[in-house]
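EI: anyone free to look at a 485-residue chain?
SC: sure, send it
EI:
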Amino acid sequence: MTDREVTLVFPGKTRITATFTEGENLLEVLRRSGVTIASDCGGAGRCGKCRVTRIRNGVSEEMLACKCIPQAGDEYLVKKEESFVSPGETGEKTGFASYCLALDIGTTTVAVSLISQSGERVGERRFNNPQRAYGADVISRLAAFSNGKGEEMREVLCKTVARETASLLDECGVSPGKITSASAAGNTVMTHILLGLDCSGLGVYPFTPASLDSVTLPFNELFPGSEIAAETYVFPCLSAFAGGDIVAGIYACEMDESEKTNMLIDLGTNGEIAAGNREGIIVTSASAGPAFEGGSLSCGTGSVPGAIDSVSVYGGKASVTTIGGKEPAGICGSGVVDTAASLVRAGIAGRNGLLGEEYREKGFPLAEGIYFTQDDMRQVQSAKSAIKTAITLLLRRTGGEIYGVYLAGGFGKGINPANAARLGLVPECDLSRIVSAGNTSLKGAEKILAENGRERVEAIKNIAVRLDLPEDDEFNNLFVENLDF
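SC: here you go
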């Protein structure tokens, strides 16, 4: 070992050697080594999620990676974030001659699905976006870009996607040569970083994207290191904060072909919302932050194995379920909605969001070592108020009548419509017409491959009308009013 090397030790006792430069902190070493570790505050030392155990001269000490300056010979115990694989019962045994890959590049979670040419899902893999090491939300990522980290963020994302995609194909018994086409959708910031575009205009008024157009590239050019060479279509975006993910969602839900006016609500980091029918669609976005994806919460996580995805509170105690039935490892978006609504319903939190006095210091316990804190509740208040205000203003533009609601986002499949309604995350309507639509961005990415629907997607981009909320005089007053539960 040289005077610039440390050892990283992972669960299962896997060990790798990493190099460091003088003055570099361990978080920077981990990023450069391609190790995914949460750092929701972007390395500012506030979130406490980049904890590692340092072993120096035989002494173990827990510390934050962003505050740790390595020394030669150190060992660090690191818990990497996991991915979730859901292979189908098909794979090579079905005799498919070719396959397609669909990707949703979310700020918090990345999802990749393998489908047949007819659109049948063969397998899926979900994993935390490794850019989380640079911050939990798009604002943090834009700050990292302005600090010269743009290429680093692109590289760590692309390498991780290439690796995870290869693992998915291996799990399903499909060779890279059998992938004939692919597609990818993401919000505008994620799309810019993926394509290596200049993000500097996205973070300052008037929020000008480098490009909103769709792009088609070979998969292995988009994700270097992959053996897949298939043509890959990257969805177009609508504005700085209404991206290809909402375009894919509109397409997946067929809002552009419906006679009735429906609403699509993607409760991701950006809080993108669309309302309309075949006569026209209005799209807006609200700065909800990462609360509904679990990203910035004290015990938050993405939609990965062990994430608490549903919560009920009875007799002052929580009953939870987790993704994959694994031991609780954190709380994701659908669990966040359930927790906030259940605490208010049970009287443990007031309509003003204040937790009972006994829970204000440590938080309300959901599982062993997992708490929902007062700060978490405040983040949910702010996020839900942004969404509720956006819905109110959008309804005023569409005449106020909505037939049905599609609840999207990485956690849309598991969200409780009644709890979503209680928080004001959906407009007033018949609860039976609230559809937990799941990851509509991924579904749209799958649909375009099965139907060759690029022309229709480009038409959606051209007809969508964008509503800019910050320029609406009513936004600030409504936001304050909507903070209460």
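EI: The longest strand covers residues 109-116.
SC: 👍
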